[in-house]
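Human: If only I could read backbone structure tokens as easily as an amino acid sequence. Take your time, and here it is.
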Amino acid sequence: RPARKGEPMLSPEENELVTRTGAGTPMGEVMRRYWMPAALAWELPDSDCPPIRIRLLGEKLVAFRDTEGRVGLIDEFCAHRRASLFLGRNEEGGLRCVYHGWKYDTQGNCLDMPNEPEETNFKHKVRLKAYPTAELGGVIWAYMGPPEKVPPLPKFEWTQVPENYRHLSKMWQECNWLQALEGAIDNAHAGFLHRALTDKTTRAGLRGYWENSQAPRLDVHLTDYGFMYTATRALPEQTNYVRAYQYVMPFHQFFPSQIAHSGSAAKLKKPTVRGHMFVPMDDENCMVYNWTYTFADQPLTEADSEQLGRHIGSAPEELTADFRKLRNRDNDWLIDRQVQKTETYTGIEGITTQDHAIQESMGPIVDRSREHLGSTDKAIVAARRLLLQAAKAVREGGDPPGIDTSYYSIRAVERVLPDGVDCLEALKAEVNPAGR
């Protein structure tokens, strides 16, 4: 039966199912049916550039760009004596282990074994695990599932605009992927966690509409790819502030640009859609990819991109070389108690860093059997049910939702609408311009 208001929704067993993504786990098998972000394209800038480490779904991998510019994603460890190929030489069409010289191409095939006799055919019997990759929208994507079930490429609208019309970044979040995702689709927290206490602050924070109604009405509309949900806040003069969000299975979230608060991307003065992808590195860590794009006729300027980076706390100076936040749980996210008293609700710098701090503070994997959900948790409930249903479908040999092309043109939007208006009908043409 559905959970009643105030009751936990998930049992301990269900919580394990939706959070664990290693090979052979129900949710791991669901994840492997989608294209997943593995790296930003600029991390492999040139042919034969140094390889990079990648951790996806609990697997340790290396990515490299070969002499022809092809991207390989293969097991990190050499098939010979299991030395790390992160230390390898990227040369002449393959990645060569520096221990004994074994060399692999982007498909994981062993090309050379210089420490073996020339007449042996041993190299033809050795192959490393390798996953297909694709470059799209400034991201290197990987597919880790059954070869016969490769879905269409993830051609979100933000991947199709010119490079200077979008802004990309990524940040390491030190908690399970699902509590990170749930934080993003929880609209009700924004009027508290991200609130600015004064118009005079230069720090990122929300004001205006967010303060007028801290208990929004949520409506969830199921779709082929996940769901669209609206958050409605009452305004004076019988109007409502309505924000339409998108959740695309299994870890994509879209939200509209804000229109009425200080310190926000609203200062870009361009119509923008923003979002995140919460990609499991392992069960206790995820990599959060942040994207913003504009569909206006003017590209994002360098100043726009700098502002976006500062706003979410993902500017290069805010991160270590492996994308870990300088403000992290080891230093209590550098919370400033004086700023918390006088300028922002949290005293933590950066909108996204505020999200990460709260979600990381719950521990690596939160125990959802001890929660008590309320009326503003409808989107979270819907996402959990979809994930449980997807695990069941894949286990029984079926397909999870969102592996077709129905999400290609969707957007997130916000509008002020009169009381009594059907939000879904009023926003239909804007949230899916192509009408798919």
